[in-house]
Amino acid sequence: MKFKALAAAACILFAGASAGSAATFNVVGGFSGGQLGDVAFDVTIDADFSADIAETSSGLAINSLTSSAVGGAFTVAGGLGYRYFLHADLLTIGGLSNGLDTLNVFETDFAFNVSDFLSSDPVNILAFDSIDSIANIKIATTSPVSVTEITAVPLPAGFLLLLSGLGGLAAFKHRSKRAA
Fold this sequence. Notes:
The protein has about 180 residues and is an alpha+beta fold. Helix content is about 20%, strand content about 40%.
């Protein structure tokens, strides 16, 4: 009887673990014509896009970030972060030094907006950048953006392995009680 309770608990835990709304997206894009020159970025974001996301760097991994004006890879002022507005389906990626709404003109900083982020045809609509101590912020020309959802590879054998382990423990416990 206890084995059935353990199996039921394992099923509930397994179902609860897979019920989340988190998704992982790879975002590749760039812009040019601003003070950073030609900028290219490739980031991975793992977050729950079923609601608005405040400014954060949580779940963000920088795969590459380069600037022709800087001469290659560079670090963004305050670190790179993102924000998402569900009602507008708008993702903003940029430096967190002064927040995503305000560029820091005394550091290497940028903000890049992706409209229709979760649609099949995302569009980068606007990019601003600044560099070093130059106080003249330029609106850059955006290039096409690629947004790809990264789906987790399911491990169907994992659940069976869990049940087998629980069954083995139950059998061992049952055998120990009979021997005593």
